[in-house]
């Protein structure tokens, strides 16, 4: 099973592309990920994700939406996002540096790249029912087709992406505003990252909602509100899910006793851990280990 490797604040650690070609193409199949879920993460790069088969629910920033086959989404830099498939989804996608299209310190960057990167726009969906969005989808289809063939023409890739980018920017200039909402979004997002960092560093301990909230210097109610807006679950629910995810890994990769694994993820009461595990995974820890 594949996993998204992140730092404690959910920043993805993988390098996408190379310094001399900072763009990477992927063709993800959600069935290759645990529970058909590409877990929460963020990165400094832009990302464009399409769906070629199936359907996927995308959680980006503070919103959730479904992408069906033939649709795509642009995800802005530093935006927390996650993908979950009810059945399955095949998702050709590219992750690329903002400087891939044109370097910083240029007029083109300042006029066409920076306004997107610094804007309030967390994501943008492309559906084929809209003429200009369909044009972007056609360009992305050509780009993905060329990259999947393996014999990459770097200049052609940049030209196709630049054309798609220009179509997008010309249509959404009214969204490209740097205002108080962005500052508030960044504040809540950064606080959530601090709380997640605390959870991942202390999940094996007996931590409470008060501890999680204190780690970001916010009240319990604010912690609940920020998590709900950015992640879609409460801090305690995220803690439980993280603990269950770690325990799944330990069950598969070690022969440790279930009681020991329960203690390793913060549960001294093995029976309670087993009930939680069954609730979230659908199997007992013992059956999951042998599955």
Describe this structure in words.
By secondary structure, the chain is α+β, with helices and mostly antiparallel strands. The longest helix has 23 residues, at 180-202. The mean pLDDT is 90. It has 2 domains: 23-175, Jelly Rolls (Sandwich), CATH 2.60.120; 180-290, Arc Repressor Mutant, subunit A (Orthogonal Bundle), CATH 1.10.10. It is built from 10 helices and 9 strands.
Compute the CA-based radius of gyration. 21 Å
Specify the number of helices: 10
Main beta sheet: 9 strands, antiparallel
Morphology = globular
SS-based class: alpha+beta
Please indicate the percent range of residues in DSSP E strands (runs of 2 or more): 15-25%
Instruction: Please estimate the helix content.
Output: 40-55%
- DSSP, total strands: 9
Helix-strand pattern? EEEEEEEEHEHHHHHHHHH
Separation of the first and last Cα atoms = 14 Å
State the name of the first-level CATH class of the largest domain: Mainly Beta
Q: Return the average pLDDT rounded to an integer.
A: 90
Low-confidence stretches: none
Q: Please give the CATH architecture of the largest domain.
A: Sandwich
For the record, the count of structural domains works out to 2
CATH topology of the largest domain: Jelly Rolls
Strand and helix layout:
Blueprint (H helix, E strand, L loop, with lengths): L22 E7 L7 E5 L4 E5 L2 E8 L2 E6 L3 E4 L5 E4 L4 E8 L10 H11 L5 E4 L4 H18 L5 H18 L8 H23 L6 H7 L4 H11 L4 H19 L4 H7 L5 H12 L3 H6 L1
Antiparallel strand pairs: 1-8, 2-7, 3-6, 3-8, 4-5, 4-7, 4-8, 6-9
Helix pairs in contact: 2-3, 4-5, 4-6, 4-7
């Amino acid at each position: 099973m594949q996993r998204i490797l992140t730092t404690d604040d959910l920043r993805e650690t993988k390098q996408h592309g190379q310094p001399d070609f900072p763009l990477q193409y992927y063709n993800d199949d959600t069935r290759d990920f645990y529970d058909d879920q590409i877990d929460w993460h963020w990165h400094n790069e832009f990302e464009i994700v399409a769906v070629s088969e199936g359907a996927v629910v995308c959680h980006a920033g503070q919103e959730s939406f479904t992408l069906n086959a033939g649709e795509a989404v642009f995800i802005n830099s530093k935006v927390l996002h996650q993908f979950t498939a009810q059945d399955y989804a095949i998702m050709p996608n590219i992750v690329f540096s903002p400087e891939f299209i044109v370097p910083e310190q240029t007029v083109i960057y300042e006029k066409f790249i920076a306004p997107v990167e610094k804007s309030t726009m967390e994501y943008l969906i492309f559906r084929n029912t809209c003429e200009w969005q369909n044009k972007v989808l056609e360009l992305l289809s050509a780009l993905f087709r060329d990259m999947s063939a393996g014999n990459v023409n770097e200049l052609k890739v940049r030209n196709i992406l630049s054309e798609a980018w220009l179509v997008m920017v010309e249509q959404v200039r009214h969204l490209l505003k740097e205002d108080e909402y962005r500052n508030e979004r960044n504040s809540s997002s950064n606080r959530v990252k601090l709380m997640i960092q605390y959870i991942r560093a202390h999940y094996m301990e007996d931590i409470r909602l008060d501890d999680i909230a204190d780690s970001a210097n916010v009240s319990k109610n604010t912690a609940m509100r920020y998590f709900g807006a950015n992640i879609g679950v409460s801090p305690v629910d995220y803690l439980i899910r993280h603990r269950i995810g770690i325990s799944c890994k330990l069950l598969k990769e070690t022969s440790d006793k279930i009681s020991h694994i329960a203690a390793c993820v913060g549960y001294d009461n093995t029976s309670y851990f087993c009930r939680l595990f069954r609730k979230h995974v659908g199997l007992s820890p013992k059956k999951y280990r042998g599955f």
